[in-house]
Amino acid sequence: MKLDKIGIWSEIKLDIIREYANAFTTIMRKQAWCQGYAYIDAFAGAGVHISRRTGEFIMGSPLNALEIKNPFTEYHYIDIDKEKTEALDMLTRDIPDIRIYKGDSNEVLRKNILPFLTYETKKRALCILDPYGLHLHWETIMDAAKLRTTEIFLNFPLMDMNRNVLHKDLLSADQEQIERMNKFCGTEEWQNILYREQKDLFGQTYQMKIGGNIELGKWFRKKRLQENAGFKFVPEPVLMRNSKGGPLFFLFFASHNENGKKIVNDIFNKYRKYL
Ligand SMILES: C[S@@+](CC[C@H](N)C(=O)[O-])C[C@H]1O[C@@H](n2cnc3c(N)ncnc32)[C@H](O)[C@@H]1O
Q: How far apart are the C-alpha atoms of 118 and 107, rounded to whole Å?
């Protein structure tokens, strides 16, 4: 299998998640009421990548989570790619409390994992939603939010959005791509935030882009994650850029727990100055 080559922005993302996972389990293990704390990597990848910076192997988020000082009490890894789940299976063979699922994470999360993390279970979870593109569905985020037990890191895939959907004139984007964006956002409202109907000199209607990544990110944070999904705490996300300064994704964190927000804010602020 060909391993993914990852840029410095992904290495920073991995560091952020690892640092928070460490803090999360350190706190959770001291909670006498807590019946378990799960780590869920819903777009897990193969577990190993190659650093573009150094050419060396680098552990992906699923293996990072196994390296922390105080382990989670259960691990769930999902990927749609059979070669990746097989690689993960091999790399984690001797480790107990791990389940690996080959499938679409929207289905697997909603059917096989989230229903077992209700508030009554007295469990908590950290769920990593890290797709390359618009592969996540809004209903999945909603299901996680409704539980009130589960915190998420969310890769908001600006590059896929900008390349395939958010053209200067929305009418020039494929309907299929617009549908992917609707599915991710769970609404068509993003179109009102980013576009205005205009007429050109010949009276032809077009949808002119009037907003960019910042407006989109603000709307998603306040309106969708906080107001609509009901996550109480959603710190300002980190904007990851490539080496030429091009925006790649926002890394969001969303939680019902104020302490979690504070810790992530500190971690985000520490890395913001390098971005
Ligand atoms: C950005 S990579 C994940 C990297 C990983 N989080 C890490 O940091 O090591 C995204 C992964 O999502 C997988 N993927 C894409 N669509 C998916 C879907 N609908 N359900 C589950 N996995 C999917 C891809 O095969 C790929 O391995």
A: 17
In a domain, 229, yes or no: yes
Residue 193 forms part of a structural domain: no
Closest atom of ligand 1 to 49 CA is 9
Q: Nearest-CA neighbor of 15 among 49, 65, 69, 79?
A: 65
For residue 192, is it within any domain?
no
Q: What's the CA-to-centroid distance between 44 and ligand 1, angstroms?
A: 5
Of 20, 41, 63, 79, the residue with max ligand 1 atoms within 8 A of its CB, to mutate for a pocket test, comes to 79
**Residue 65 belongs to a domain with what CATH number?**
3.40.50.150
Q: At residue 101, what is the residue type?
A: Y
Q: Which amino acid is at 128?
A: I
Closest residue by Cα to atom 17, ligand 1, is 80
Quote the domain boundaries for residue 253: 5-158+220-272
State pLDDT tens for residues 74-121. Answer: 999 999 999 999 999 999 999 989 999 999 999 999 999 999 999 999
Return the structure tokens found at 13.
């993302």
Q: Examine the pLDDT at 274 and tell me if it is beyond 90.
A: no
Residue 109 lies in a domain: yes
Task: Say what the pTM is.
Answer: 0.97
CA-14 nearest atom, ligand 1: 8
Number of domains observed in the structure of the chain = 1
Q: Closest ligand 1 atom to the C-alpha of 17?
A: 8
